[in-house]
């Protein structure tokens, strides 16, 4: 029967007009390849895919996508994911999209009708979690009662002006659980926040009390803190040496020169000033090369 449409494509519109569906008469028709096999592999990955078994209510697939901004290509990709999952697993799929800003969430929640207006063949209806419907958890006790939900709340509201309050509640809640659990959800929070300004707030919170947090993040923070501390200590020591040498040589050091030496954190520059402090006739000559 399908070959009839190859011979007379217009029969499609004429047939459905008789059924009360106003498909327009075609003005041009192109015969397309019928083989839908991907000759060149195209990588398509959903962010997270779960099979949910609901007992007597059956099973379904939950495909989770994190969306940071509007993307006109995404609805087509999501439709492909849903159709492919149903064809492969024969289980009803549910698409869940998580967003960190309201505009993106509202865009993602729109029903996308794929097909002509007269008869959409496929309707895509994602479930969306975003700042518009995700609860804000700022109470540490409430966060401790459901740490996964509190983590999702923190990530979802990562761009909120009050993100710091939400993150503080989660940080306090993580101290009520075992180290392994705290590590998992602390790292999930950091990954979920991505490059949002709240990510720095979270790293600062984690650096305050890392006794329970032995993750790679904590180790990096400790290492960075130690390195910064050592560098600052060496810089302070070298600045004191410069000032001591100038004093021993009887060279007056104006206050502005003293402040410039004391505030310098560049060990290479301080090394040059140290060498010059042995021979200069005036304190200002320490900076002669840099200013010249």
UniProtKB/TrEMBL annotation:
This is Rpn family recombination-promoting nuclease/putative transposase. It comes from Streptomyces gelaticus. It comes from the Bacteria.
